[in-house]
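[Meeting: bench + compute handoff]

Bench side (C.D.) handed over the final construct sequence. Compute side (W.E.) agreed to return the predicted structure before the next meeting so the bench team could plan truncations. Sequence as handed over:
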Amino acid sequence: MRVLVTGGAGFIGHHLVSHLLDSGKEVSVLDDLSTGYMARLEPMIKDIRFVEGSVLDLETVTDLMTDVDVVLHEAAIPSVARSVDDPLGSHRANTDGTINVMLAAKANGVRRVVLAGSSSVYGPNASLPSTETDRTDPRSPYAVSKLSAEQYLHSLGHLHGVETVTLRYFNVFGPAQDPNSDYAAVIPKFVTTVLREEEPMVNGSLDISRDFTHITNVVHANMLALETEGVSGETLNIGCGASNSLGDLIKAIGRSLHKDISPRIGPSRPGDVMHSLANIGAAHRLLGYEPITPFDLGVASTVAWFGEMGAVTEGVIGTRVGGTAA
């Protein structure tokens, strides 16, 4: 099977590339390196076809999809906070980029496109756990762009005979996640802050909770979505089906490092929701998905990776190369 991974130098993307190669797939990667790191791909570079380019360049995307069977579309600007600062940039990368991917898939007769969706589309859902049939209520430009991407994906797929699957990720974390950006996800930022002997800052409240999902679970879900029959047009939650608060997270990091951690409490961030939790019943029923790495084990392995790599300063994960939105 020939697979294209857009955003393949990103956190999730490069883990997918590695697993695809291990499973014997032929892999192409498209990434403009605006938020990804080439260093993540260097150990695999001889085994993949890599093109530095953007999903916003339709010609490049179309050319790269020649002889591709399935696309794992991970390219995005995956940040609520950044989307508040730059809603147009978020829309272009996440929505317009998805339209281009679907047009290129149509032009090349690609069999299936699997989209990296987001749990943010649910918004402040009063009914938890969130199920795929719940009303969506996106509260940030990022969430709006991801919901729009889902709708374009399924609409264009239906119109042009391309199979589509959306995987709505819930707060993915794990080794090699970037802790250095102003928009970094909470787990790598907390871990590296503590490793520097500093106090982590919690935005809003220690009671904020998330369905934190280790990267191995997301890779597992994508591998199932790659080949499982009878799932075209589906949107599926990918999480652990378990809720942990930021207070729980701080304690888990502390246990892994044998430290008592006292975080600072800062202001809430615009666009954030208080709680999220996935109902993963549909993914289990249709894909056979079950989480393989629980929260505590995932946090421990992530803390160990950052500790071993010394990834507490800029540039350890890799040198960021300038560019436009992936």
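W.E. noted at the follow-up: The longest strand covers residues 112-118. C.D. will use this when planning the next construct.
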